[in-house]
Design a protein that fits this description.
Organism (chain A): Pseudoprimorskyibacter insulae
Number of helices of chain B: 13
Number of domains of chain B: 1
CATH class of chain B: Mainly Alpha
Largest sheet of chain A: none
GO cellular component, one term (chain A): plasma membrane
Oligomer: heterotrimer
Number of strands of chain A: 0
Distance between the termini of chain A: 36 Å
Radius of gyration of chain B: 24 Å
Radius of gyration of chain A: 24 Å
Chains: A mainly alpha, B mainly alpha, C alpha+beta
Membrane topology (chain A): Multi-pass membrane protein
Helix content of chain B: over 70%
CATH architecture of chain B: Orthogonal Bundle
Keywords (chain A): Cell membrane, Membrane, Sugar transport, Transmembrane, Transmembrane helix, Transport
Structural class of chain A: mainly alpha
Order of helices and strands of chain B: HHHHHHHHHHHHH
Subcellular location (chain A): Cell membrane
CATH superfamily of the largest domain in chain A: MetI-like
Chain lengths: 288, 311, 435
């Protein structure tokens, strides 16, 4: 009886600790972000107020209205930036995933000479500090004439994301037992059929998370974009954030409004795609 | 999700060129990385041996041997930034890993609303590093910032704490922003790893009478290790993204208290226009990055070997 | 050949610009690529580009629109890559000397009579090694002293101040008074006497003008560092003293212009040396708590009797590689002509043409705040000075500012910090072959 009760008590204590821990963690994660969302609806005088205004006296859409307003009224070509960001991020993510699946599969399933060195070599390309890369890349792109184009940005982002997708997908393919595909092949599937029907669904969790990462990296990247884009033809949203700064001033409320427009699509996409992560769960069932 | 159309061209290529299949699969990755990374890198390697100034393009032909490297080797500001970067990376990565692990475990235990929690957990990943920089610059502002305002309103502090100026606090603030931004990466990868854990060893452990700590320590954790190392390695490569953030928050200052390699190199290269020298410093710091990569790769391989997934 | 073509263009231009009108269809079929500074404050002017297009038949294609620092990075990258065949670029007097090869001398394309219409000091600062590299737009910047008026109408404060410092409390005219009053007004952490930009080029600029106000100079005529002098030490001591006394926000060494502006607007700063662009913001009740309580005075003087007056301005330049420099120069003149400057300065920025200064002063009559602001800035502008005209100005600031910060934060003494900065700048100048 007593052991049972202490057991139950311990379980309850654990549950409460779990809840509190989760609550604190989620608060730390959310508050700085929600602060930005809130700021986008507040007049500037309240954001930077001292003594602080904790309960907003006034919430309005002024920053959004100004952002969509015309030239000279604080207008920023948001929709164009949004389209550029979308086209560049989605395309580069899809390509990076395809290339990464090929590479990841090769590393996970084939044995060949110099594999370890090649792998580290691929990864090391990501280790290059962007600062050392951005100028020569700019010069190269300028010579080919793909500065300020979607193509140039997509190319750069694919390269940036490929080591990452290869690595991640490789890791997930390794989790798939070789026997699974072999069994399928014995059942009369070709290697490709076995791949798509057996190994791919199992590694889907990995591919989904690689996809989310690649997309978010491209969606949020600033350093390269600020170098390789010039004008509204290809400027992405993170670069557009800087439209709210001028030599002496910074329109923080306006910047927050654009930030919200950047965050929402990413959030929606993540919410939709992340369910594929659950696919990993079925793996246990497959094997068991 | 992804269309299966690539099997056709790949299949064609393989039969026509008779390349080994692994090479065919890897070729696109290799080609893209060569074009976008390797060639520019060679260009900047070359320029690190010249007195290259951005504003005087002809200076790229002015070969000065290892002058830039010697200058960097003798520059105490460079080595101070180097040491600080190593310290910053070590602290930030380890804390991110621990917090990420904790977060993933907590989220995985939740039964209701997990889908929402997972999305919330990834919330900071939606923030562009440059936005994070502005955000925390304002949050940590000593006069009208959110943190000091909150502390003063709650009566916890009666002074304006100079978060971004004080020697220790400034590094803390930057690390906080970095950890806030990147813990999700560990969290989500470890969470995916948790989902991929086969259930039977865990059940076997339970049958054998293991406590939950024991089954975590001896079953779950070894299985998670490859995921943790993947995340570690990816983050250590990726950590230079923090450049945008640090540049906005403190730009290495004040008085070089938060100077990291990236802010130093970025300023030397673009603001001072001394690209040759900046590239030399960049190359020295690449060794740092490669060291981390190789280290985590070794760890990854051994963790995989333990699980019988080596090769 | 090229010379003659240029000469012909010059003649045509002289005819048209002298009367202030453009010849219809003069640049039919010409397309000018332009890289113009972006941001709210600057973009209203670009609405006039279509007028120029309609009148001349030329076309302007804005291929880059970024903020000032990003644009600087882009120009440097362009020089490095050789992609400089675009025509018109935004420029800034503090940055212009860094691009010695990028921009052409405008003298052959702009008649002397037109050049004479701009403020002489601005044209002087836009002329590097005898070449007129840019024409200034109505974005002239010099700092004046913003203050909270209510602080000077409280008899209790006035009495307490007199008791402590022995002279009457009034809007400060010297930096010594600013220092005294800043300490007097401070009630940390809720209220601070003043604040200053604490990093990057900004603090070096502030230090530079203080050195001048103290009677010293930053560089000698041949660009040897000259700030490790008595005047230089007094100037730095002013910053250090205020920081140690806690009369500035403790984070001030991490502040740039936006932080300073937000601080002033939050109503927690008594005295704030700042740029003209903020006047409208500070006096806007929806953005600022000091609206209606804001006074503007000319920049105070240092112990040598000089006003501080570090100044700069935006303008437009034409690239050396531009295919049609006549058309480009015509656009640059158009964007800085009287109508353009009237348009820009209506929103608050200061003009760079004599006639437009008169015009805005006239317009401000009846608006007490506007008149006060203009008078303060006009007075300060009289003795304003530009940054030292060396291509290594920005590089030098990057060597100097960490040392200034170290002295302010107490990591080094004033003597050590200035000696270290002097040595670093000296080494850099020698390495670049300046002397």
């Amino acid at each position: 009886m007593t052991t049972d009760r202490t057991h139950r008590n311990r379980k309850r204590a654990l549950r409460i600790a779990h809840f509190i821990g989760l609550f604190i963690a989620m608060s730390i994660i959310c508050i700085p972000g929600l602060w930005i969302v809130l700021n986008s609806f507040r007049p500037t005088v309240e954001i930077m107020a001292k003594p602080p205004v904790w309960i907003p006296n006034e919430l309005n859409l002024d920053h959004y209205r100004a952002m969509f307003g015309g030239n000279g009224q604080g207008g920023v070509p948001v929709l164009t930036y949004f389209r550029n960001s979308m086209v560049i991020s989605v395309t580069s993510t899809i390509i990076a995933l395809l290339v990464g699946m090929g590479g990841g599969y090769a590393f996970a399933r084939y044995r060949f000479k110099g594999k370890a060195a090649l792998f580290v070599g691929l990864m090391a390309t990501r280790a290059v500090p962007g600062v050392a890369l951005s100028l020569p890349l700019f010069i190269l792109f300028a010579r080919i004439g793909i500065i300020d184009t979607h193509f140039g940005m997509i190319l750069a982002y694919v390269a940036m994301n490929v080591p990452f997708t290869v690595w991640l997908i490789d890791g997930f393919f390794r989790q798939v037992p070789r026997e699974l595909a072999e069994a399928a092949e014995i059942d009369g599937c070709t290697r490709w059929q076995a791949f798509w029907r057996v190994e791919f669904p199992v590694a889907r969790a990995g591919i989904a998370s690689a996809g989310i990462f690649a997309f978010l990296t491209s969606w949020n990247e600033y350093a390269l974009a600020s170098q390789l884009t010039r004008s509204v033809y290809s400027k992405t949203m993170p670069v557009g954030l800087l439209d709210f700064t001028s030599e002496f001033t910074l329109n923080w409320g306006g910047m927050c409004a654009l930030a919200v427009l950047m965050i929402i699509p990413a959030l929606i996409l993540t919410f939709l795609v992340q369910k594929h992560l659950i696919a990993g769960l079925t793996f246990g069932g497959v094997k068991g | 999700m992804v269309t299966p159309s690539i099997d056709l061209p790949n299949g064609l290529l393989m039969t026509r060129l008779k390349l080994p299949p692994w090479l065919v699969l890897l070729l696109p990755a290799i080609l893209i990385l060569m074009a976008v990374v390797l060639i520019p890198l060679l260009l900047s390697l070359y320029s690190s041996f010249t007195s290259y100034r951005l504003t005087r393009p002809d200076s790229i032909t002015n070969w000065i041997g290892t002058f830039n490297y010697e200058k960097a080797a003798k520059d105490e500001n460079f080595w101070a930034a180097f040491g600080r970067t190593v310290l910053f990376l070590t602290i930030a990565l380890n804390l991110e890993m621990l917090f990420g692990l904790g977060l993933a475990l907590m989220v995985s235990k939740v039964t209701k609303g997990q889908r929402l929690l997972r999305t919330v957990m990834m919330f900071p990943m939606m923030f562009s590093p440059i936005l994070v920089g502005f955000q925390f610059k304002f949050i940590f502002n000593d006069n009208v910032g959110l943190v000091n305002n909150a502390l003063q309103s709650l009566g916890l502090s009666s002074t304006a704490i100079p978060w971004l100026v004080d020697g220790k606090l400034a590094l803390f603030s930057i690390a906080f922003a970095e950890i806030w931004m990147s813990t999700s990466v560990f969290g989500i990868l470890i969470l995916a790893g948790l989902y991929a854990i086969p259930q039977d060893p865990l059940e076997a452990a339970k049958v054998d009478g293991c406590t939950s700590w024991q089954s975590f320590r001896f079953v779950t954790l070894p299985f998670l290790m490859p995921f943790i190392y993947i995340a570690m390695a990816i983050r250590s490569l990726d950590v230079a993204r923090a450049y945008d953030m640090v540049q906005i928050m403190t730009n290495g200052g004040p008085a070089r208290r938060t100077e990291l390699l990236w802010t130093l190199i970025g300023r030397t290269g673009y603001v001072d226009a001394k690209m040759g020298y900046a590239n030399a410093m960049g190359y020295i710091s690449i060794f740092l990055a490669i060291f981390f990569t190789v280290y985590f790769f070794k760890k990854l391989t051994s963790a995989r070997a333990e699980l019988g997934m080596g090769g | 050949m090229k010379f003659f073509a240029g000469g012909a263009g010059l003649a045509a231009l002289a005819l048209t610009t002298a009367t202030g009108a453009l010849a219809a269809g003069e640049f039919e079929g010409v397309t000018l690529d332009a890289k113009l500074i972006g941001g709210q404050q600057y973009e209203a002017l670009y609405g006039r580009i279509s007028e120029w297009e309609a009148e001349t038949g030329g076309k302007v294609n804005v291929i880059s629109s970024k903020n000032h620092f990003e644009l600087d990075k882009e120009f440097k990258s362009d020089i490095a890559a050789g992609t400089t065949s675009w025509c018109v670029g935004s420029n800034h007097s503090s940055f212009a000397s860094q691009y010695p090869t990028l921009y052409t001398d405008l003298t052959p394309y702009v008649p002397a009579a037109t050049v004479a219409e701009y403020v002489d000091a601005n044209i002087a600062a836009a002329t590097l090694e005898g070449r007129l590299v840019m024409l200034p737009r109505a974005q002239f910047d010099v700092s004046a002293l913003y203050y909270q008026k209510s602080l000077y109408s409280d008899p209790a404060k006035a009495e307490a101040f007199k008791a402590e410092y022995g002279y009457d409390l009034a809007v400060p005219t010297t930096w010594k008074e600013v220092s005294d009053q800043a300490k007097f007004f401070t009630d940390a952490p809720n209220f601070y006497g003043t604040q200053y930009a604490g990093k990057d080029e900004a603090i070096v600029g502030r230090y530079y003008e203080m050195v001048v106000a103290e009677g010293g100079e930053l560089f000698t005529a041949d660009f040897h560092p000259a700030f490790n002098s008595d005047a230089g030490k007094r100037a730095l001591a002013w910053f250090v003293d205020l920081y140690e006394a806690g009369a500035v926000p403790p984070g001030t060494t991490n502040y740039l212009w936006d932080d300073l502006g937000n601080g002033m607007a939050s109503g927690t700063i008594a005295l704030n040396l700042d740029w003209p662009g903020w006047a409208g913001f500070f006096n806007d009740p929806s953005a600022s708590k000091v609206a209606g309580n804001l006074g503007v005075a000319p920049a105070p003087k240092g112990s040598a009797g000089n006003r501080t007056g570090w100044s700069g301005f935006h303008g437009f330049s034409v690239t050396e590689d531009c295919a049609d420099k006549e058309a480009a120069a015509s656009l640059v003149v158009f964007l800085t002509n009287e109508d353009s400057q009237k348009l820009e300065s209506a929103a608050g920025p200061l003009p760079t043409r004599d006639a437009v200064w008169d015009y805005v002063t006239e317009q401000a009559k009846g608006d007490a705040f506007k008149s006060e602001t203009l008078a303060a800035f006009q007075e300060t502008a009289k003795t304003a000075f530009a940054v030292p005209a060396t291509p290594y100005w920005i590089e030098a600031t990057n060597l100097i500012y960490p040392e200034l910060q170290a002295a302010i934060l107490g990591d080094k003494t004033i003597d050590e910090a200035l000696a270290d900065a002097e040595e670093a700048v000296d080494e850099m100048m020698q390495e670049n072959g300046v002397y």
